[in-house]
Amino acid sequence: MITVSDLCHEFRIGKKGKERVVPVLHHINLHVERGEIVTVVGRSGSGKSTLLNLVSGYIRPTAGQLVIDGRNVTKLSEGEWADFRLEKFGFIFQSFQLIPSMTAFENVELPLVLKGMEVGERRRRTEAMLKRVGLDPYAGHYPGELSGGQQQRVSIARALIVNPPIILADEPTGSLDTENEQSLLDFIRELNREQGITFLIITHDEQVASIGHRKVVIQDGRLVDSLSLVKGGLR
Predict the structure, then answer these.
(1) Are 67 and 5 in contact (CB under 8 A)?
(2) pTM check: above 0.70
(3) Where are the beta strands (DSSP E) in 49-165?
(4) What residues does 10 pair with on adjacent strands?
(5) Cβ-Cβ contacts under 8 Å for 215 (sequence gap 6 or more)
(6) Helix (H, G, I), strand (E, B), or coil: what is residue 180?
(7) How confident is the model at residue 149 (pLDDT cuts 50, 70, 90)?
């Protein structure tokens, strides 16, 4: 589903002519199978979030190749990437990334609006999705009126609304308490088991990392280890 081949990335810092090159990722090779949960762990600054941004097309690699669902997306234009993201990815963020001026219903519905779906079908699918995550009584509430756990569930509902084959998650439990964290992890397992959704999850939390089929360790921009896991234990 996701194949990263010899991927490198560097940032340039400073004024033109006096730029300093800062290498971030060094020759990353990673393959994520369809229906697999892969967690990527590493310290702050290790390059794990940069890897997620490269996979999602928000930044371009300095070198290497990225193939997603059989398509080489390394050199897609911005417009092509936008269409591809809408078709293939759902996103879950630590900070939820909800629009404060929109209700829970409107936040979840937004990807369907961007896809140009007919109003009646949008409403039917959005209502069903909010019910699925247990938030149908809160459809008219704004993000500021919801708890952290409820906001994250709105974020998940928005990620799922277009039935994406892949979900990319960046520290998805970072803003949640223990109870809500466990609820989210259980839901991720359920989605993976019942729908075969592929997950690539960035985390520094070992409990989150343990839900994966495989845990990948990044250190100083290099992939240094890959461990296969079964039900939270080493295979």
Answers:
(1) yes
(2) yes
(3) 63-68, 71-72, 89-93
(4) 23
(5) 38, 39, 40, 41, 209, 226, 227, 229
(6) helix
(7) confident
